[in-house]
Fold this protein.
Amino acid sequence: MVDLNPIESLVVQAMKDLGATSDEKKKTADDIAKKCNRPKSMVNNALVTLMQKSVIKRVAREKASGYYVVPGTA
Protein backbone atom coordinates (compact mmCIF):
# COMPACT_ATOMS: atom_id res chain seq x y z
CA MET A 1 0.00 0.00 0.00
CA VAL A 2 1.34 3.41 -1.01
CA ASP A 3 1.11 6.37 1.38
CA LEU A 4 -1.16 9.02 -0.11
CA ASN A 5 -1.80 12.56 1.05
CA PRO A 6 -5.45 13.68 1.50
CA ILE A 7 -5.89 15.14 -2.00
CA GLU A 8 -4.31 12.05 -3.61
CA SER A 9 -6.68 9.83 -1.63
CA LEU A 10 -9.62 11.99 -2.72
CA VAL A 11 -8.56 11.76 -6.37
CA VAL A 12 -8.15 7.96 -6.22
CA GLN A 13 -11.55 7.57 -4.54
CA ALA A 14 -13.18 9.84 -7.15
CA MET A 15 -11.62 7.78 -9.94
CA LYS A 16 -12.96 4.58 -8.37
CA ASP A 17 -16.41 6.18 -7.96
CA LEU A 18 -16.32 7.16 -11.65
CA GLY A 19 -15.36 3.59 -12.57
CA ALA A 20 -11.92 4.52 -13.94
CA THR A 21 -10.42 1.15 -13.09
CA SER A 22 -9.18 -0.06 -16.47
CA ASP A 23 -7.84 1.25 -19.78
CA GLU A 24 -11.30 0.92 -21.36
CA LYS A 25 -12.90 3.03 -18.60
CA LYS A 26 -10.37 5.85 -18.28
CA LYS A 27 -11.50 9.36 -17.33
CA THR A 28 -10.14 12.84 -18.09
CA ALA A 29 -8.71 15.25 -15.52
CA ASP A 30 -11.87 17.39 -16.04
CA ASP A 31 -14.11 14.45 -15.11
CA ILE A 32 -12.05 13.74 -12.01
CA ALA A 33 -11.88 17.41 -10.93
CA LYS A 34 -15.68 17.74 -11.21
CA LYS A 35 -16.19 14.61 -9.12
CA CYS A 36 -13.69 15.83 -6.47
CA ASN A 37 -15.12 19.36 -6.47
CA ARG A 38 -11.55 20.68 -6.41
CA PRO A 39 -9.65 22.99 -8.79
CA LYS A 40 -8.34 21.25 -11.90
CA SER A 41 -4.78 22.45 -11.16
CA MET A 42 -4.88 20.74 -7.76
CA VAL A 43 -6.20 17.53 -9.34
CA ASN A 44 -3.55 17.67 -12.09
CA ASN A 45 -0.78 17.95 -9.47
CA ALA A 46 -2.21 14.96 -7.61
CA LEU A 47 -2.45 12.98 -10.87
CA VAL A 48 1.24 13.62 -11.56
CA THR A 49 2.32 12.42 -8.12
CA LEU A 50 -0.02 9.41 -8.33
CA MET A 51 1.58 8.46 -11.66
CA GLN A 52 5.05 8.75 -10.05
CA LYS A 53 3.87 6.44 -7.27
CA SER A 54 2.50 4.00 -9.91
CA VAL A 55 -1.01 4.18 -8.44
CA ILE A 56 -2.59 5.37 -11.71
CA LYS A 57 -1.79 5.18 -15.41
CA ARG A 58 -2.05 7.94 -18.01
CA VAL A 59 -3.09 7.19 -21.57
CA ALA A 60 -2.39 9.91 -24.15
CA ARG A 61 -5.25 10.49 -26.58
CA GLU A 62 -5.99 12.97 -29.36
CA LYS A 63 -7.84 15.49 -27.21
CA ALA A 64 -7.47 14.92 -23.46
CA SER A 65 -5.39 12.28 -21.73
CA GLY A 66 -7.23 9.57 -19.86
CA TYR A 67 -6.40 8.21 -16.42
CA TYR A 68 -7.28 5.03 -14.57
CA VAL A 69 -6.41 3.37 -11.27
CA VAL A 70 -3.94 0.49 -11.52
CA PRO A 71 -5.68 -2.58 -10.06
CA GLY A 72 -4.39 -3.64 -6.65
CA THR A 73 -2.47 -0.43 -5.86
CA ALA A 74 -4.89 1.66 -3.82
Q: What stands out?
A: Strands lie at 56-59, 66-69. The radius of gyration is 11 Å. The mean pLDDT is 93. Residues 20 and 50 are 14 Å apart (CA to CA).
